Amino acid sequence: MGAQSPAGLGVTPSDSSASPIPADHAGVTDLFAVLAYGEISAFYRLSEEATLSPTLRGKVAVARMAAAELAHFERLDAALSARGADVYAAMAPFTRALDDYHRSTDPSTWLESMVKFHVGDGIAADFYREIAGALSPDVAAVVRDVLADTGHSEFVVEEVRRAVAASRSERDRLTLWGRRLLGEAITQAQYVMAQRDELTELVLAATGDLNGIATLFEHMQSAHAERMAVLGL
Amino acid sequence: MGAQSPAGLGVTPSDSSASPIPADHAGVTDLFAVLAYGEISAFYRLSEEATLSPTLRGKVAVARMAAAELAHFERLDAALSARGADVYAAMAPFTRALDDYHRSTDPSTWLESMVKFHVGDGIAADFYREIAGALSPDVAAVVRDVLADTGHSEFVVEEVRRAVAASRSERDRLTLWGRRLLGEAITQAQYVMAQRDELTELVLAATGDLNGIATLFEHMQSAHAERMAVLGL
């Protein structure tokens, strides 16, 4: 999840002066685990989609992005071990939702793959970064580290901007694609939350209440629009 | 190319007191380039073959191996840049031979994939390490670094040993597979050398003469047999 988020979504927990969610909250293990599975799936998704790259340069760029995702996985693996959790057992409840997301948003072109990398992961990053705001500093640091931009978005932004500047139909097609990514990501995020009580509790604690969650999703949509604009979409 | 070589094949250039091949030999760029393409192909081959893994643990192990190959690619990319060469242009003459090798040795099971990783890359590593012995120290250091064992072979050895200890037919099948890998690797190595005059010259200078090359291939075969034995094959 290497995509960059527009600075500050402006969402804060309903009471930002409240104590942070304790590091031993059971949902923290779930949060690290869903992030870890996200990273390892992103590694394989990127590696697969690299076959769509028209150039060897593109393939190398994608390999670098994939390796950055793996480095994030390692950080989460260490954080889970430090909590006494086994990364594979912890990830198990989340594999289905993330696999479904990737299956339902399988890019058919190189540009779709690049937009998915940038926009899809950006949506996820916004979500997790907001939750991080309510976590204790040590836990938040892990989340922010693994969501940090890995310096590869520049490559993606240039590839996409060039293509959509040159072709109106490509732009229309990718705009629709971006909208679909947002829809699928939100569907799966809701599914993941509903799946795991501990994680639901953590998200509720982080956002304040159900209204807080609604506000978070609204802000994710505006951040998504900004990100699409950066791509020329 | 992360596989480990049995220590010392005992091949030395015909006159080991001769000065090393100068760092500005045109074949050095070719050597770095073929290694670089080998690493990037290995990255993608591993990532693809990970779908054969029966477990998520296996998938993560393979992602780690792939990321180690990419780190080696980065080292070669830097070494090529330092020589004023563009990595993509330099790799172009070698893509066909390496792609052909991978196409002709496409694993159909997880165990075949693991044997290919360990044995196939081991064969290549033996070849390049022997050449390195005749190179100037700076150049040899790059070659040895990128062929260094990345600490993942233990995982592979255990997976394969366990499977072949449990099944005689699996053992027979994988023994044949290992033999095929050796044949294909030698075919492609000869093709690569014949393709590029500068590289042929460098290999000849490193091994002494045509007899030296024959001796090198013989030693590669015994090293291969040792490596198969380690796997229980």
UniProtKB/TrEMBL annotation, chains A, B:
<feature type="domain" description="Ferritin-like">
    <location>
        <begin position="26"/>
        <end position="204"/>
    </location>
</feature>
<dbReference type="InterPro" id="IPR012347">
    <property type="entry name" value="Ferritin-like"/>
</dbReference>
<feature type="region of interest" description="Disordered">
    <location>
        <begin position="1"/>
        <end position="20"/>
    </location>
</feature>
<dbReference type="Pfam" id="PF13794">
    <property type="entry name" value="MiaE_2"/>
</dbReference>
<protein>
    <submittedName>
        <fullName>Ferritin-like fold-containing protein</fullName>
    </submittedName>
</protein>
<dbReference type="InterPro" id="IPR059125">
    <property type="entry name" value="Ferritin_actino"/>
</dbReference>
